[in-house]
Amino acid sequence: MGYQVYLRSFADGDGDGWGDLAGLRARLEHLAWLGVDVVWISPLYPSPLRDGGYDVADYLDVDPRLGSLEELGALVSEAHALGLRILLDLVPNHTSSDHPWFMAARGDRDSPYRDHYVWRDPAPDGGPPNNWPAHFGGPAWTYDDASGQYWLHLFLPHQPDLNWQSPAVDEAFADILERWLAWGIDGVRIDVAHALVKHPDLPDLPPAPGQGDEVEVTGGSGVGVEREFERYAHVHDADQPGVTEIYRRWRAIADRHDALLLGEVYLLEPQRLRRYVADQDGLHLAFWFAPLHLEWSPAAVRAALREGLEEVGPWLSWPLASHDRPRSATALGGGDLGRARALCLATLVCGLPGLPMIYQGEELGLTDVPLPHEVRQDPIAVRGEPERARDPGRTPIPWEPGPGWGFTSADEPWLPIGDRRPEDTVAVQRGDLDSWLQRYRALLATRKGLHGSVADEPVDWLAPDGPIVAYRRGPVVVAANCGQQAATLTLDGRHRIVRFASARAREGQRVAEELPLEPHEAVVLGP
Ligand code: GLC
User: Do 332 and 463 belong to one domain?
Assistant: First the structure.
C-alpha cells in the first residue's frame, strides 16, 4: 500500500508552522501502524516554492525549511526499520528558474547550459514561437530580453522545461537518479512523466476534437486550470516517441538498486498509457487517474477500474486522491456520503493488482477546507483563478484536538488547518474502531492478509451491470454497492467469510449464495 506525504502539511517537527522531515519522522510509526509499505514524499528540495516545490532549485539537497540531508538519511533508516520504503518525487520535465542551470543559461546564448532548456526565436510578428498554452494559463513561452529568445515552460514561466534532446540533460538525470538510489532512497515518483520529450519541430497544436463541447483532458496534469489548455489536442507537447527510451535507461539504474519507478503519466487514454508500462523494461508502475475524474455512478466506477486493468494492464498505481485534485470525500458528494463512496472505491482498488496510493488524510475521511481566496498560495490562485486553486485539498493534517491540532506548535500554520472537528483527528479516530481511520487500517490489513491467495489470480468481474461493482480473484470476492438502493449479489455458493466490511459489525459473517449490500457498503470476502 502506498501513501503520499505532502510534507509541508503533514507534521511540523520544529514549530515553524511548516510540515517537515522531523515531523514525518515522528509520525512514521503511525504510517506503519496504518499498514503502509511505500511512502512517496512530494518534493522536498530547495525551491522558491512557486509551485509547491515542483520548481526545483537543487535536485540533490533538502530545503532547509524541511530539514537536511542528514535528517532525510535518518528518516530513511527509521523507515526501513519499520518496513517502509521511501520514494522521492523526481521532477525531470522542468527546473525552477532559480536553478543554477537556468540562471547560467538565461541571457547568454553561449552558456554551456543554454541547451539544457528549449529556446526559440520569436515568431515573425515578435510573438511566441508557437501556439502552445501553459497548464497554469497563458502561453507556454516567455521572452528573455537579454538573449532575444523565448524559453518554453509547460507550467509556470518559473518552471522552464528541460531539453531532453540534450545528452547533457539525459546524463545529468541519470546521475541524479543513481546518486539518490545509491544513497538509500527506494525509488522515485516521476513528475509529468509523459511530457519530457516534445516534437523536435515544436509545431502548432491543432484544436481539440469536439472543441466547444465537453473535451476530455488527454495530456493535462489534472491540476485544474485547464480550460485554455483543453482547447488544444496535445499531440506535440506530450507523449512523444522517445520518452519511454528515457525510462528504459533509468530502469537499468533502478534495477541495480532494486528500486521502484512510478510515473505520473497523466494520460486518460489507456492505450497511450499502456506504452509506458506494457513491456516492463521502463517504468514499473504508472498512475491510472481515470477513477479521480469520474462522475459517480456504478457504471462509471466499474468502467474506470476495468478500463485501466484490461486496457493498460496490471502495472498500475491507483491514486485515491492527490495534491492536485479535490479530496475524494469532497469530489464524491461531500460529507459522509463522499466518505462512504471514497471507501467503496478504496475497497475496490485494494483487491486489484497494482499499488493503491492513499493521499495523506484520505484515511481520515477529510474533506477540502473552504479557504478564503486571499490565503491561497497555489500558482493557479496567484495567476488569477483562486476558485480553482489546489490549496483546499492541501491543508495540514489534524492530528489531535487542541491548538495547532497536533500539526504545529506555531500560532499560524503555513496554510490554515480550517474548520476541523475533533472527530476528524488521528487521535480521536485511533480510539474508535468504527472510525474512517480504523476502517482504512482494517482494509489495508485485509489486503495484506489475502495477498498471498490472490497474487497470481486473474480478476473476474461478477456483476456486469446494476448497483454492485464486484469481482472475484481466486478465493476472494470484493464488492461495493455504488448505487442508491440496497441490492444483492448472487455468488457461487462457496462459503466465504467477510474479512473486511465498511460496516465493521459485518466482519466475520459467513456468506455463501447471497450477499446483500446497503448503498455505499463495501466488503472483502475471503476464505
Ligand atoms: C505535477 C504535479 C503538480 C505540479 C505539476 C508541475 O502534475 O503533481 O503538483 O504542479 O506537475 O510540476
Answer: no
pLDDT, tens only, 270-310: 999 999 999 999 999 999 999 999 999 999 999 999 999 99
Domain total of the chain: 3
145 and 217, same domain (yes or no):
no
Q: What is the residue range of 483's domain?
A: 457-526
Nearest CA to ligand 1 atom 7: 221
- Whether 434 is catalytic is no
> What pLDDT digit, counting tens, does each position of 478-520 carry?
999 999 999 999 999 999 999 999 999 999 999 999 999 999 9
Which 3 state secondary structure label does DSSP give 135? coil
Does ligand 1 have an atom closer than 6 angstroms to the CB of 155? yes
- Residues 6, 71, single domain; the answer is yes
Instruction: Identify whether the C-beta of residue 364 lies closer than 8 Å to the C-beta of residue 436.
Output: yes
122 and 229, same domain (yes or no): no
* Pair 213, 178 in one domain: yes
Residue 412 annotated as catalytic: no
Query: Rounded to an integer, what distance in angstroms lies between the CA atom of residue 11 and that of residue 267?
Result: 32
Question: What does the DSSP assignment read for 59-71?
Answer: TTS--TTT--HHH
Q: Whose CA is nearest to atom 2 of ligand 1?
A: 191
Per-residue burial over 62-93, b if 16 or more Cβ lie within 10 Å, else e, is bbebbbeeebbeebbebbeeeebbbbbbbbbb
Written as nine digits, the cell of 190 is 516521476
Amino acid at position 270, single letter: P
Instruction: Tell whether pTM > 0.85.
Output: yes
d(CA 403, CA 420): 12
Which of 55, 63, 191, 368 is the catalytic position? 191
Amino acid at 310: E
Q: Once rounded to an integer, what is the mean pLDDT over residues 350-366?
A: 98
For residue 439, being part of any structural domain is answered with: no
